[in-house]
Amino acid sequence: AAESKCRQCADKVPPGKTCKTYTDRKKTSWIDVDLLYTPEDTADMDYMRDLGFPGEYPYTRGYQATMYRGRLWTMRQYAGFATVEESNRRYKYLLDQGQTGLSIAFDLPTQLGMDADHPLSEGEVGKVGVSVSSLADMEVLFDGIPLDHVSTSMTINAPAAVLLAMYIALARRRGIASGSLNGTIQNDILKEYSARGTYIYPPAPSMRIINDIFAYCSEEVPNWNTISISGYHMREAGCTAVQEVAFTLADGIAYVEAAVKAGLDVDTFATRLSFFFNAHNNLLEEVAKFRAARRMWAKIMKDRFHARSPKSLMLRFHTQTAGCTLTSQQPDNNIVRVTLQALSAVLGGTQSLHTNSRDEALSLPTEDSVRIALRTQQILGYESGVVDTVDPLAGSYYIETMTNRIEEAAWAYIAKIDELGGAVKAVEKGYVQREIQKSSYQYQLDIESGAKVIVGVNKFQIREEPVKNLMRIDSGLFEKRRRELTDLKSKRDNARVAAALTGIGTAATDGTNLMPPIIEAVDTYATLGEVCDTLRSVFGEYRPDASF
Question: Distance between alpha carbon 501 and the CA centroid of its chain, in Å?
């Protein structure tokens, strides 16, 4: 074979070898990054010849024709801590500072379907989110907040039906029709099995609950996003950008398949599906990732599920900047990281955005830190100029090539998952977990070897003083909450509660939709733990295979 020249640098390359200049380049998500991109890189890409316009299939350039020229993304700072009273004050503060949507963080007991007075709740009440055990808590949490005028996102999964039921019951008590409610429940249980761990029930009944939510909300709460299919937590666990796209969309396929199998018409629920992605430090790769995901989902819904409504083809997503990239060393550096990550989400066409705070590697964020994080979004929206035109990076040789490569690699993963029997089977067999673990391990090795530089951690270190003024959560909250629940249970009509819980058990057994009896139960002040325990008695609890 004759000697060739490297197109990237014109160096002579021996037969069968690759230019050293090229191989020395960093990889991103295990995809080679060329030294230079030219028209030749995109000349043979079919989609470049028909890239289309924003608001048109396959929505590579955005799902709305005008994007941010029409309206900015929803600025939705994730918040919740300690008591419902304290969290309510934080929500009102954020709304006063210009936040345009609420995003509720629940503490670990709430996420696991346990009341605040459960023995296992001790030490965890209010630590990573707000403690909510009953409708009485929800009434205080949203005191003075107009539910029919604010969009509320709730990061809740296994007990999502119960928290949504509380929100609906609260609205009814205020005379607000369910059709006026706007918001999202995360409700994505598959990523809990593969990456996060706050599951309760086995996969089959968990999928059944999700289908019940889809069916109920399509009729009764039509403006509610009934699931936020989340790649965020898998990326936090260590997967690459390619894996984030692939595993997220594979989970989305599983949810749609389950709903269709249960008899739901795809266009009755698919228009309310939403997604949740991570924004990491590699600015341009992240932009390409968002574009690839949007295009792939449009193809999946059109070709695989034969959806007819254009809205069913549109991948709408919330983005959160990457918590796992925040460092306790030199925490002010995190402001720069978050700015770059937020910029990638905006350039990638997100519909909603949370920006992390500088001190989150050390504690829950202080009020000052939250304000800086929100101001980061506002400066991007009102000062940076990146919103003046739709999809400003379209046509970049690098962006279009990387978008294509991410898509190709993600399709290969989805094909493998299909071969295993779908996302549920892939999780049950440990495939997704192992792939994430391998990526996470390699990432850590790269940091420890210095191949990946983390400023202030493995390079450019300084001697630092301890950070002051961190947020502290009262360790006495468990006892306070225990007394509140004891008082609640002594004042409510316990006969009504018992009857309502029996209704939930009956519905769980006979297969009728669970949402109406759950709403009825929480309206009697049945607690989160009581409802979830009733379902546990029918469905059992999930125990993962210890081998992975």
Answer: 31
CA distance 346 to 448: 32
Please give the average pLDDT of every successive group of 10 residues along the chain, which has 548 residues: 48 51 56 83 68 91 94 93 95 94 96 97 95 98 96 97 98 97 97 96 97 96 96 97 98 97 95 96 97 97 97 97 97 98 98 96 94 97 96 94 94 98 96 96 95 96 91 90 97 98 98 98 98 98 80
**CA-to-CA distance for 28 and 242, rounded, in angstroms?**
9
Spatial distance between the Cα atoms of 296 and 408, rounded to a whole number of angstroms: 10
Helices (H), 321-395: 333-348, 367-382
CA distances from 436 to 9, 26, 246, 325 (A): 35, 20, 12, 16
Q: How far apart are CA 47 and CA 340, in angstroms?
A: 28
DSSP assignment, residue 459? B
3-class secondary structure for 489-533? HHHCCHHHHHHHHHHHHHHHHHCCCCHHHHHHHHHCCCCHHHHHH
Quote the CA–CA distance of 108 and 86 in Å, as a whole number: 17
Copy the structure tokens of residue 500: 């309502």
Q: ω before 58 within 30° of 0 (cis)?
A: yes
Q: Which residues lie across from 27 on neighbouring strands? A: 32
Tell the residue number behind the tokens 């910029």, with chain if given.
343
Q: What's the Cα-to-Cα distance from 359 to each of 336, 353, 363, rounded to whole Å?
A: 13, 18, 6
- What's at 216, amino acid-wise? Y
Q: Is the pTM of this model over 0.90?
A: yes
Residue 278: which of 195, 211, 198, 210 has the closest Cα?
195
> What is the rounded CA–CA span in Å between residue 273 and residue 279?
20
Confidence (pLDDT) at 16: 47
Distance CA 513, CA 218 (A): 13
DSSP alpha helix (H) spans, 148-240: 160-173, 190-191, 203-220, 232-236
CB atoms within 10 A of CB 446: 16
User: Cα torsion for 54, 338, 244, 239, to the nearest 10°?
Assistant: 160
